[in-house]
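USER: If only I could read backbone structure tokens as easily as an amino acid sequence. It would mean a lot if you studied the pair and described how this chain folds. Here is the record:
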Amino acid sequence: MKICQYDGNEAGAVEGDRVHPIGPALVKVGHLKPGHTMLEVIAALANQPAAMKCAREAVRMGHSLPLASVRLLAPILNPPSLWAAAANYNAHAAEMLAKSGGPDRAALGKDDLMAEFFLKPSSSIIGPGDAIVLPKISKDVDFECELCAVIGTSARKVSEERALDHVFGYTICWDISQRDPWGRNRQNTRNIRKGFDTFTALGPWIVTRDEIDDPQNLTIEVELNGAPAMTAHTSDMICGIREHIRFLSGVLTLRPGDLITTGTPAGVKKLAAGDRLKGSIEKIGTMALRVEAET
């Protein structure tokens, strides 16, 4: 299923060009309380088989709306944490080494690379069709389009073989990054440079794990102002999602709703006010954003 959040924070499931409300059905039978968040929807669907069965029944039998008639929001606004991988494609690592001057991570092992995970604040989250706002302080902001895993069941010290058992689904994450003035040879500034308001875009929905056989076998494509800007494949990641979950769960407990975004391929480009972005990940969908200057 494609689980979305729309209009007044309503939970829905997208099928074709229709949105099926699932929140009311889950509330009616006691799987959710009125006023629930999407974090609670994800936790219920991932951990209560009866809740998922109820949602699927609501899609099969219930009322639906034209997708074009609703406003899609970020599929989750309050993740417990959002872990972001750094320089997880060889070509992007080389791209950023040339652009910002270092450091060179070519000799690092996988766990050493994954130790550079950073956190993005939930206050930076926006959704489909929203605007990235370029801060006045910066003259160099670029985009990164990434595959993002949504944790469904708690994970602590899990193996790579069992890692995907803990995934609820997948979404697109745009990791917007300020490169100037704090990005040159100062890697410990990532939380700030990537944490501005509007610098994390999620959507257009969460595709449940059963619809994606292997997250390392997906194509990523991005257009900037209608022209191709990035084409890549998730098999080119240095560390895959299974490794990310193994590493992170060896350090801390991953919880339902936690997000793990997996780094961008090469092809990042500087943004300007008025730009239009459109990114697609195979089997997930397409998400558009616009770019504005801070006023």
About this structure: The CA atoms of residues 57 and 235 lie 35 Å apart. The helical segments are 23-28, 38-47, 49-61, 90-100, 110-114, 190-193, 241-251.
